[in-house]
Design a protein that fits this description.
Layout (H helix, E strand, L loop, with lengths): L1 E5 L7 H12 L10 E8 L8 E9 L2 E9 L2 H39 L1
Parallel strand pairs: 1-2
Antiparallel strand pairs: 2-3, 3-4
Helix pairs in contact: 1-2
């Protein structure tokens, strides 16, 4: 899986880059076929303290996932975004498994007839 980190208007230090790579790499446990992840870290021009934004887009065969979050630190924003993507991936996986179970039950009932 290729991880691309973009940060317009500022440079990402090595600690933040390692943190992002470590967190995003864990997503491959949910889907081994992920081709690339695009991570966008940006500062929002708002007056609130929650002005750090993380957007992550995942590309895998037959599915693209996207999540975003806004927090006071980039680390928190990355963590929240990863949790949102994990939730989406679990949901897709369970719906896929339910569809497979339904298909298996239909084929079994046809074989009995």
């Amino acid at each position: 899986m290729e991880i691309r980190i973009e940060s317009p208007h500022f440079t990402v230090n090595e600690l933040l880059q390692e943190y992002v790579n470590k967190k995003v790499a864990k997503l491959s446990h949910f889907n081994e076929r992920i081709m690339w992840c695009n991570v966008l870290l940006r500062l929002d021009k708002s007056n609130t303290e929650e002005n750090k934004v993380c957007e992550i887009k995942i590309h895998a065969p037959k599915e693209d996932l996207f999540a975003t979050s806004r927090c006071t630190t980039f680390e928190d924003a990355v963590t929240e975004t990863i949790h949102a993507l994990e939730k989406q991936m679990r949901k897709k996986k369970t719906s896929w498994q339910k569809g497979k179970e339904k298909l298996d039950m239909e084929t079994q009932s046809e074989e009995l007839e």
